[in-house]
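Sample 3 of the quickstart, ligand zinc ion:
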Amino acid sequence: MARDPVCAMEVDPKHAAGTSTHEGVTFYFCSPGCKRTFDKDPHRYAHGGH
Ligand SMILES: [Zn+2]
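Result:
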């Protein structure tokens, strides 16, 4: 399982609603809305939310 970095839900990569790549790491999302939120500010979510 992967973890959605926006809402912290566990996401099965095979059934993810969306994916994004940031600095070579692939992230998986539970919903298109979480992907949009991530894409607006990937740095914030990809590095632990600080
Ligand atoms: Zn989510």
